[in-house]
Each structure stands twice: as C-alpha cells, then as structure tokens.
Amino acid sequence: MYKKYLAILICIIGLQTTKAQLYESFVHKGEFGGSIGLGKYYGDLDGDSKISRPKFAAGLFYLKQFNNYIGLKVNGSYAFLGSSDVHSPNIWERTRNLSFNSNVWEISVSGQFNFFKFYPGFPEYRYTPYISLGVGVFSYDPYTYFGGDKYFLRSIGTEGQYDTAYTNRPKPYGGTALSIPFTVGFKYALNERMNIFAEACYRFTNTDYLDDVSNTYSPTSFPADPVTGQPSIGYLLQDRSYELGVPNIGTKGVQRGNSKQKDSYLTFQIGISFNLQSYRCPTGY
Question: What pairs with residue 102 in β-bridges?
C-alpha cells in the first residue's frame, strides 16, 4: 500500500517538475498587432461630457516584453475626433453653434505592466489584465464646414491669433501636441501564437485647441471685404450664432471657451496580437 502511494507521489512531483521546466524554458519576448474601435473627444465643444457620438479609431503596436510582468510598448494610432454645439444641453453653448472635426495621428511609448503571469499556450497563464502609462506626440488640424465647403480653422485664427492690432490676442497654436496615454486592458491567448485583447486609453494633452476653441471672441479681427462689404470667412466662423436667427453673442473679449482646462480624448479598441517567443534550456541541463 505504501509503495503505491509513494509511486503516486513521485509521479505528481515528476509532473510538477516537468511543468516547471516547461515554464522556465518558454520565453515570451513580446507581441505585435493591431486594433480598431471608437474615439471620443472631451473639450469645449463636448457638451454633456458623456460617451456619446464616438467616431472611428485604430492602432498598430509593438510590445517588447522584459519579463512576465513588465514590457515597453511602441504604439501608432489614429482617431477621427469631432463634436458640435448642437448636441449640448446648455442653451448658451447651443447658441454659440460651433463645430469641428479633426484627424488625429499619434505615436507613443509606454511602459506596460501585466497583473498576472502571461504564458501563451499554457492554460493556467493564458490571460491577464494590464495597465500602461507613457508619453506621445500627435498631430491635429481642426476643420469645419460652411456653405458646403471645408475650412481648416488653425490657419484662420478664429480667436484673433493673427491680428497684430489685438493686444490680448492668444498665441497661434501649432499642428502637434504632447499626450500622456493611460491604458487599461485585458488580453487572452487563443493559442501560443495569437491573442485577442480589449483596452481603453485616455489621453491627457497639453493643448486646448483640439477643437479650435479656448479663449475669447475677437470679431474686430476680421474686417469685411473693403470692396464688396461682405463679411470675411473668419468673421463668419468665429461666431455662428447668427445662423440660428439670433443676434451675435460673440462680443469682443467675451469668453468663447474654457482656457483653464486642456482638451483630451478617449479610445476604446479591440484587437489581435501575435506573440514573439523563444525557448531556452532549463537550469540544470
């Protein structure tokens, strides 16, 4: 009887040792993959700040895994962002009647942390939640439509950025800005080669002009055409309350947006990644 139990115990120990050697020999070197999903902007034209009316987003990435828990991720992403005052529950914002869209291209580098050991191909360790935090740079160029035509707003300077006679004018903003992407995600290994994942990434930015709205109105920065007397396109786009049949609300110096808070955006994506792996001899061999 004792010999039988001893044999079973030896088999169990042998199996555990073999499994430990398999884990030790497997090296998860990293991943590469892509994702698609939705993007949502938060800023002066955001209205109620809810996750509503999202637009398209996508991304590609490469992850270098240093050990079971820590990795370095290089990510390239695209998000189509936009919003309009017509959706706002606030009567003043609806009367302001501004809108924008922008194509946002970003590249970022982030440190990633897995909460669990991740060994693709081993059922016990085939999934993990993870978080990442990093820094990125992105390009943007907000535009709107008027009379069926598309107008890029940065070059117009809708808040008087290019009016040298306007002493309190804000500085012109550039076409690139910095971001701090913070990501929460979950991944699951379908097999030793392929994973699926879902993640939400919130980007803090250092710009308040994703939507071209930040400071005050400056209607006098856009004089009428000296020949025809017709208003300039800058004047027509800096305050569009007249389109609602009400008197213009854009008096010079009156607040147009909230310059105290930077714009940001959120993406939620699902994707597929492919594992990079190798094997090594376990210790003792």
Answer: 81
Per-residue pLDDT at 122? 83
Specify the range with the lowest mean pLDDT, choosing from 84-93, 129-138, 149-158.
84-93
The pLDDT tens digits of the residues spanning 12-43 come to 444 444 444 444 555 778 999 999 999 999 99
Q: pLDDT band at residue 2, thresholds of 50, 70 and 90?
A: low
Task: Tell me which residue of 146, 132, 76, 147 sits closest to 108, measured CA to CA.
Answer: 76
The pair of structure tokens assigned to 65 is 């895994």
For tokens 């990293």, the residue is: 30
Query: Dihedral (C-alpha) 176, 181, 187, 190: value to the nearest 10 degrees?
Result: 10
Write down the residue that tokens 């808070």 correspond to. 261
Q: How many CA atoms lie within 13 A of 111 on its CB side?
A: 4
Residues 6+ apart with CB under 8 A from 137: 106, 107, 108, 176, 177, 178, 179
| Distance from C-alpha of 242 to C-alpha of 96, rounded to nearest angstrom | 9
